[in-house]
């Protein structure tokens, strides 16, 4: 079927409103000129060839009939062609309407089965929705018509808090200004009050009336977000105690050192090692050792300020980072921790109480180093000093005011 020919013709007719009138006028002019010529010249010829009036009258009757016949045939052919064109145009329209309906059906099935919600909204403060797919119910708990035109709630109001809302608006505005597609991640409060994390990808386009609208898709990525948080926890936390692991504790110490250096403040590091922990494992078993580790580290974490950072450095070695603390304060804190651990009662399921003591080395910035590894080394050496002094005591690394103070009293501990 020569559809393209019909298409072009239809397009020409559709685009130029004067074209039909022009063509009709031409047809009428040709008809008038041809009719005039025929009547004038045929009459002259008939008068020349048939001088007999009776014969001339008969010839003119036949000539008239012939003219009517010819114009009838022309009219028939022209009308037939026009009707055929109309029929083909109607058939094309019907076909296009069917194709459009089919595409709309496919699109609607696709939209409804998308894992998230497709949308079209105004680029305004409310993200006024012009269209949302059925997936909106699964995603937000709201029906499409509750969101469209902000009838019940505006989409912008679903974004969990102001900080997120401001960040999203900023990123979105920047992407639209650059005429680029945007990709956003933010928390959304659903109709039932629960919170989910969504990922949105979209683009700013020109609307029907020249206004700026946004089109895109929004997906629920809460599971991925949860996994990310878990992975981050796993990468930074110690599995047994839940404290920061060695890598994270080192990173946090480096961060604190930078801050201390920038604001010219002191800070301290405690290196804590359990005394005779091997004996606990050997006497009560590894599981009991784990229980002691968990119980004592919980005690340590509860005994320091919220700004302080407790990390597990290895087996039964722990570090405590004390921001904005000088040697004297650090020594006092260490002594307080030592005392609390020695007084702590670690009770097994069988009712057995496991005694435990710790040896603590103290190093401070800037007296004992301005870098993490130097500070660690100083605190570690001080801790070994404490071990060699009989354990269950605190030693401040040499070279600071507090290290020249008398050694704090020793408490009773497990072992010798
Ligand atoms: N239960 C348990 N034990 C651990 C863990 N990590 C390390 N240990 C044990 O901690 C013990 C450390 O022993 P040592 O390094 O000899 O130190 P210590 O017995 O505490 O003796 P001093 O430090 O010299 O007072 C070893 O027996 C390790 O097996 C753990 O996660 N759980």
Overview of the structural elements:
- It contains 12 helices and 12 strands.
- It is α+β, with helices and mostly antiparallel strands and 416 residues long.
- The chain folds into 3 domains: 110 residues, no CATH class; 110 residues, PAS domain (Beta-Lactamase, 2-Layer Sandwich); 167 residues, Reverse transcriptase/Diguanylate cyclase domain (Alpha-Beta Plaits, 2-Layer Sandwich).
- The strands form 3 sheets. A 5-stranded antiparallel sheet has the order 2-1-5-4-3, with helices on both faces. It has a 5-stranded mixed sheet with strand order 7-8-6-11-12, with helices on both faces.
- The N terminus and C terminus are likely disordered.
- Guanosine-5'-triphosphate binds next to strand 6, helix 9 and helix 10.
- The site of guanosine-5'-triphosphate (GTP) has 16 residues, from strand 6, helix 9 and helix 10.
